Amino acid sequence: MNTYTIKYNELTAEQFITLWESVWGNGPSVEQTELAMKNTLFRISVWDNDKIVAMARMIGDMGLDYYIKDVVVIPEYQHKGIGRMMINELLNFINENGVKGTDIFVELCAMPDKIPFYSKFGFESNEAQRLKIMKHIG
What's the number of CA atoms in the CB half-sphere (13 Å) around residue 90? Predict the structure, then answer.
């Protein structure tokens, strides 16, 4: 098994876009992504020597709600335990920063084929439907 290096809060906009495009196609603008990185609570990048191979980030209000966002492992590194390692790091971040003695709502959005992966961590789907709009800023 490979040994990977995890870096905390160092993920750059350019790295984010590269990883995004490795899985989802055209990425957001550099300007948008720089703002997002600046306002992300916690971000993780995973490296195989000098090659970035995965990322994940946490957004939220640090009190009531945390949201796991942009979990990406480049295709040739999938199914090697990297996703599990990143989710555990994100959940540890909540444990270390959440208000002790309280319950905290942790959310994420997953494609149907990824639900079994997240179920292993205790995530459950419910009857709520995800609503979205792509708002163009003119």
Answer: 29
Whether the predicted model's global pTM rises above the 0.90 cut: yes
Structure tokens at 45: 């990048």
Concatenate the DSSP letters of all residues of 40-96 into one string: -SEEEEEEETTEEEEEEEEEE-SSSEEEEEEEEE-GGGTTSSHHHHHHHHHHHHHHH
Short-list 132, 130, 135, CA closest to 110: 130
Q: Which two tokens stand for residue 119?
A: 């179920």
H/E element, 24 = helix 13-24
Q: What is the pLDDT of residues 36-93, one digit of tens each?
A: 999 999 999 999 999 999 999 999 999 999 999 999 999 999 999 999 999 999 999 9
Per-residue burial over 91-113, b = 16 or more CB atoms within 10 Å of its CB, e = otherwise: bebbeeebeeeeebebebebeee
How many Cβ atoms sit within 10 Å of the Cβ of residue 43? 24
Instruction: Kindly tell me the sign of the dihedral angle through the C-alpha atoms of 47, 52, 56, 59.
Output: positive
- Angle at alpha carbon of residue 61, lines to 100 and 15, rounded to 5°: 115
